[in-house]
Write a structure and sequence with these properties.
Elements lengths: L1 E8 L9 H6 L1 H24 L8 E7 L6 H10 L2 E3 L6 H14 L4 E5 L8 H10 L5 E5 L5 E7 L16 H8 L5 E2 L9 H16 L6 H9 L16
Parallel strand pairs: 1-2, 1-4, 2-3, 5-7
Antiparallel strand pairs: 4-6, 5-6
Length: about 240
C-alpha cells in the first residue's frame, strides 16, 4: 500500500502572523488558503485514481490538528475520498509523525506527506516520489525558497518530521542535516506562502490557460474574487488593490 498524506493543520484558517496574512491581510489569506487546499486535494485524488502503475492499493489521508476538524476540510475530504486522521502528540511534528506511523502500521510500504499550498503540483511529481521510494529511504521535494513541498519515507525510516510551516527557508537544510544518509531530491516546485508566490501563481495559471489547461481551478477563482485577475485574464499586481 502507498499512502499520500495532505498535511492540513490549520490550512483553512492561516495564522494571523503568517507571511501571506501579513502581506495580503487575513481575509484574503483565508480565501486563498482554502482554494490552495482544494487544488492540492484534487491533485491527491488524481494520484489515488491513477493505479495503472505501481501499487494499486492507494490511500489518501488528511492529517488534521484536532478531532473537530474544520468543516471546510471535512467536506473536502469527503469530496476527494480522503480519510481524516489526527495523530497524538503535543507539537505539530509529533502529531504528523503519529499519522505517518499509523499508516505504516496499516501496512503501507511507503508514505509521502505534502503541504497544502502547492496548487499547481503535477501528479507525476508525486508518482516520481513513490517510485523513488522503491529504493530510497527518504525523498524530499524542495521549494525554491528553501522549504519543502513533499517528504516521503520508507517503512521505519528514521526521519524527524518538520512541524509548523514547511515554507520556512531553513526547513530543507535543517531536515537534511538530521538525516542519517543523504535524501533523494525530487525536482524543485513552488508553494504559495507570500505575495511574491501569489504573483508567480497568477502568471503560471495564465500561461497554462493559454494552452487550454485548466489547472488549479479553485485558486484561479479565488484570485479572480480578490481582484488579482481581470475577467479577461489580465493579471493585476499583487500590491495593486
Amino acid at each position: 500500500m502507498e499512502t499520500l498524506i495532505l498535511s492540513c493543520g490549520a490550512a483553512a484558517s492561516p495564522a494571523p502572523d503568517s507571511r501571506l496574512a501579513r502581506e495580503r491581510g487575513r481575509v484574503d489569506a483565508v480565501v486563498l488558503q482554502i482554494a490552495l487546499l482544494a487544488d492540492v486535494a484534487e491533485a491527491g485524488r488524481r494520484w489515488r485514481a491513477a493505479r495503472a502503475v505501481g501499487d494499486e492499493n492507494r490511500r489518501l489521508v488528511f492529517a488534521v490538528d484536532d478531532d473537530g476538524a474544520d468543516p471546510v476540510v471535512v467536506d473536502l475530504a469527503w469530496r476527494v475520498g480522503a480519510h481524516l486522521e489526527r495523530g497524538a502528540g503535543g507539537s505539530p511534528a509529533e502529531r504528523l509523525r503519529a499519522v505517518v506511523d499509523a499508516e505504516f502500521a496499516r501496512g503501507a510500504r511507503a508514505v509521502a506527506v505534502v503541504g497544502s499550498r502547492a496548487p499547481t503540483l503535477p501528479p507525476h511529481l508525486v508518482e516520481h516520489a513513490f517510485r523513488a521510494l522503491a529504493w530510497e529511504r527518504c525523498v524530499l521535494g524542495p521549494t525554491f525558497d528553501g522549504g519543502l513541498w513533499l517528504l516521503g519515507v520508507q517503512r521505519a525510516a528514521p526521519v524527524a518530521l518538520p512541524g509548523g510551516d514547511w515554507s520556512c527557508p531553513q526547513t530543507l537544510g535543517l531536515l537534511a542535516a538530521r538525516l542519517p544518509e543523504p535524501p533523494h531530491l525530487l525536482p524543485f516546485w513552488y508553494d504559495v506562502a507570500d505575495a511574491d508566490a501569489v504573483e508567480r501563481l497568477v502568471w503560471h495559471l495564465r500561461a497554462l490557460r493559454a494552452l487550454d489547461r485548466a489547472t488549479a481551478p479553485a485558486s484561479w477563482r479565488a484570485l479572480e474574487r480578490l481582484g488579482l485577475i481581470h475577467a479577461a485574464g489580465d493579471a493585476v499586481g499583487v500590491g495593486d488593490r
